[in-house]
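non-reducing end alpha-L-arabinofuranosidase
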Amino acid sequence: MSNKVVINADVEKGKISKHIYGHFAEHLGRCIYEGIWVGEDSPIPNTKGIRNDVLEALKQINIPVLRWPGGCFADEYHWKDGIGPRENRKRMVNTHWGGVVENNHFGTHEFMLLCELLDCEPYICGNVGSGTVQEMSEWVEYMTFDGESPMANWRQENGRQEPWNVKYFGVGNENWGCGGNMRPEYYADLYRRYQTYVRNYGDNKIYKIAGGANVDDYNWTEVLMREAGRYMDGLSLHFYTRPGDFWLGKGAATGFPEYEWFKTVEQAYFMDELITKHSTIMDKYDPEKRVGMIVDEWGTWFDVEPGTNPGFLYQQNTIRDAVVAAIHFHIFHKHCDRVHMANIAQTVNVLQAMVLTEGEKMILTPTYHVFDMYKVHQDATLLAVDANVNRHKYEDLEVDQISITASKDKDGKVHIGLCNIDNKESASFAIQLRGIKEQIASLSGTILTADTMDAHNTFEQPDAVKPTEFTGAKIENGELQVSLPPMSVVSLTIE
Ligand code: AHR
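Predicted structure tokens:
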């Protein structure tokens, strides 16, 4: 059978929130320190302590929203330790991540500066696990109160006159695990209590995000929606893609066997089932889909690179990661009526990163390139796609050979994302273009592909995997003919 695909350019399915292209940066390993923050006295060129090369790279992919300070770190972070003169800030132990000393040099002011420089919205995750209601309430007051108040005055003493706009605020993280090992009933009650004091000051209207389920814990979603749904704007979901067992061996980021290629792809597709099932429960309590699903941690999680600190979660990033990213975007687009935001874990040097650094050197990963190629879908309108695609079988695994998405941007351009997950065979097929105007002025495309399953960029070969012009598409008799090489992600634009 041949893949059969129809793009219905005149059937609009809703807006793809740009926040689906969001990010997550935690005080973990070398993400914040070294990866983003080098300090004002560093020989690495920086803007008020934030390294310029990383800043420039991240600006290019239009990060819409950035989640911080964790992750598990958030539930042991005490924000007051991270403000005021840096030399006086408390040094703490980052017990979750490698037991290293956290000097708190990157705190609220530094994070807000980073967001300003990136022109993205902050998404702050507050501490429920080991923090107090008062502490959370005062953080919101510190950041957003406009006028005279103890916290606003303190902010001004620390050099910031105007309040910041903070829309997205998470009330805890993974409270079923590192955020307090709570039962959903207990967390639902705590959520109701803590969120009461997450106030809206002046024009600042906070979008409150409750800590959601771990993977397929559907009971968590049921209880949270039932007991606290009316007090939240968003409910999170975490799912990481890995070919192996979390504790026994997740699988290597490079040099992996063919089976792990397909297992990883199968796991990436599993995100669709997860969102569908959690969404169905949310529909029961919120049929209008007011509460957004916030997939604020997703991405690949492999074994750390040999010789690196196991608590730092540093892994290489290959064409396999690029395929995983594309599959996720296609799934998030498909569910854009419920998925309001997604945040890849994590932006720099941790898990499925955009950029990797080594001293003053920096490289872009294959995942970065997918974010760059796909930024055209941010805030575009999802188009209906009918796809009947070939299944690829490998041992006990079976997955769709191709994955596809399409959107129309505000200028009427149609953007198509395509991915061939097959590691050996190319995929050639026709896409019927329904509802597209007769005269197509131009067709252009970009491809990211590689010859080996673990092709990746290194500090010696930074451009081993990079996008090039795609010449495998043409329009004939109103149909789009494409030929996708094995292991490829393609972005096409029709004007
Ligand atoms: O992203 C790494 C960790 O994964 C986060 O800190 C935590 O929330 C999740 O378990």
